[in-house]
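ok so heres the complex, three chains, lmk if somethin looks off
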Amino acid sequence: MLGSGLIKLKTLRNEGLANEPIALESQSMLKNMGISYSVIKSPKEIGSVVDQLLKENTAFGLDIETYPLREFVQDTDGGIAPRKSAIRLIQIYDGKAHVYVFDLKKIGSISQIPTALWERPLIAHNALFEMKHLLHSGIVLKKLGCSLLADRVINGNRTRLKKECGLLSSASLKNLSKEMLGLDIDKEMQTSDWSEDTLTEIQIEYAALDAVLPIKLFQKQREVLSKKRLIKSYELLRDAQLAIAYMENSGIGFDISNHRELIEDLKKKSEVLLLEIYELLGVSFNLNSSKQFGEWLSDILDENELARWVKTNSGKLSTSTPTLKQNENRHEAFAKIVQYRQLTKRISSFGEGLYKFIDIPSKRLFGSFSLGTTSTGRMASRQPNMQNMPRSDFRQLFIPKEGYRLISLDYSQQELRVAALITQDKALLHIYEAGGDVHANTAAALLNIPKESVSKPQRQLAKAVIFGLLYGQGAKGLANYAKQQYGVDMTEEEAERHRGALFRTYQGLRAWQKQTGSLAKLTGTASTPSGRIRDFRRELEGYKFTAALNLPIQGAAAEITLRAMIRFTPFLSEECHLVNVIHDELLLEVIESQTSTYASLAQEAMEKAFLDIFPNAKTYLKGLVEANIGQNWGELK
DNA sequence: CCAAGCAGCGCC
DNA sequence: AAACGGCGCTGATTGG
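and the predicted structre for the whole thing:
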């Protein structure tokens, strides 16, 4: 029935008969659900309409339609990025039988709509979109639920599920409507021109339906969330939306001219270096091609070397930096190739590609963040990824605006501290309670020396060993990791000895690993303190021991950071912007005169956030948060 | 021509 | 018995 309606509609539209009274997609669906709609086109209608709405005590469905501002019609994110967009329609579904479609072009200003409406519980699909646009218009939605986030909590990231799960591979409104409501909706109108003076009935009906669907979806999702005890986990994501909306809308100050200079400089250096490398190699090939590099390697290495050479997952000769460093004496070009790679990495991943995310007039870089897309509950960032900006010689390009400062607040040893609390390892807990240096204590225990006499390299060694252990590494992995990450040379035998010593030092940690590992294997799942579940049975690779051990720890850490964002949200304003979040670090841009005030407020929020996840951890907060204030991101610690 | 998977590498 | 966790972006390659 629905399918044939669709075909009919398309045919008629092609013949220019769209105004004929036919069974339209969205209209017939609304009718079938017993839902009517009305369009509000003048300020004087608003009062009575909103009075009517506010009588209902249900959650309302919310959707908006936007169009690009004239100067941004060519931009790919025109109509998407709030600063490049205007809101045309705001659709509110009363949760029962009517959708109110507010036509802002006719009403004049969004401020005509009483603020009481925005204080009601609302639900949208991909609600961050609505939240950002309304925030840009001065409206703060504090109670906005999201059917997309609910799906992520229930089903995880659909792109990573194996097909046999029988779920559609994205959680779009269309897909979820089909899957959960049996409705085949047409999204053709989504990209129609919402700036026209007169919108068609088809457009209005489409718009109205999109405010209804999130409510219908969420009614079902709420049951599942409740049954699987996922409410808390969902609410964590829901409540973190506002901080992200603020952050994405504010962007971060970026020193464009110095960046341009830096990249030009890197380009010149890389060209020189490339010639030097070709000279040393005696041949020239594309150094970015692991295939060509591998072929060259197989020519120069003898059988013995070939046998011992590190291989990639698919069995080819590895040409990675760790491999080259490990064999740095084998060929004098290797060191230069490592340098060259670093230069070209900067140029390709952090060079001109960034410019399309920069707003020239404000000199700010805009990235986006996602909630609930990772298997542990960490946030992710893309377009561009704001969480992997190079540390050395790059972060100084991120700057505050005139009269402001950047404040970095980071959780000190966030994951290790979390591990102590989750595993309840007595020795680790004791160190944190005393405010001691975990790595020095570990080194002392490992090497059987007094902790006062631990040297810097010994501390580095301990650091490598404990993080290795935390990740469930074996001796071989540990030896590589120690060399790579901390520059510590260690034979496999030494690594094995250190592992043993560490297991004896932190027996609680070891016991927890065994228990958690076997439970995860048994159930095929692992979970975080807030109840987020990772279901390995639905993933392509299935159960993974080390991932199962990591999930509660990385997940708990992520939950703490989300709680910190949530707790700090009320302090965000023109005086204080949240400009980046990098897993265990919040980056703020604060008006110069108030830096210490906001630093304290943020620190307090972060401490309380830690206690939100570990309520009994009051005695383990010593040295939890470190704050640094400065003129650019690079100089902060 | 595009899509997908791989290798490599930036970050926590 | 052993076990390196979580991301996103770019460039080269391959296959359709």
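quick notes: Chain A has four domains: 6-228, 256-353, 363-414+559-636, 426-505. thats all i got rn
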